[in-house]
Fold this protein.
Amino acid sequence: MAQNLPTYLLYAEDAGLPPSDVMHAESIAERSSLHSWEIRPHRHEALFQVFHVQSGTAEIVLDGRQHRLRGPGVITITALAVHGFRWTSDVRGTVFTILESHIRQLLAHEDGLRDAVLQTRCEPIPAAHRRGVLQAVASLATEHAQHAPWRTSAVDAAMTQLFVTLGRALPSALAREAGVGDRAVGHVQRLRTLVDERFREQPTLGQFAAELGITTTQLNRACRAVLGHPALAVLHARICLEAQRELAYTTLSVKHIAYKLGFTDAGYFTRFFERETGATPSAWRAQAVARQ
């Protein structure tokens, strides 16, 4: 079934998160109402989601297991975990969709908190923690929406506070494994971790496969089954995302950005970027600056 399962950045959207941001926030009803309150099973290639269900009821599928949750509760979903929802029309709550690689970077020095956060689970919120979770959710949503000075730092601080609050409110989740259970998905998850760590070096597929203990053919087969595209596209997408961030938020020359990303030829970088995005680096930067 894996090759037929939809894999998205954001549900039913090809564009996903804007490259200039690491998070998207919206009400649960905002998207679900467009789909008659039912989101069919799918997965996200690189995104972690936090659903804060303030009220209302959901029937949820998480990696083949059926759950029913009545708010207040929390659902967290790791990248590549299969999930689907059927919400009641009176649902109230917020969903945060975050680049999982950003969470790993943000919590790099807090292994226990990182492992507590990056799990797939569905939990009611204990009464003693409901106010704290609601306040942390509201703070993150506000910082993300208002575009105030030092927004990036403020969003990271609010995000960390939400993760700490959830880690303290839901300690039982530490005892369970996310357990995707599919070997191909496991290979893809490990590949994504390696890509996040080493994309600037631009390793070969053979090097990635060797570190995973499989052949390049097996690696490509796993990526096509889970993601719908070959393994090299995972590396290219990560390089392109970093290039877009550098173009949007720095004044570095295109040549300097190319060298930072492991390209020895700025012309080749320009051709690579245009092939991936449909625009040259300079044109993309001009559009990004105009949007800011």
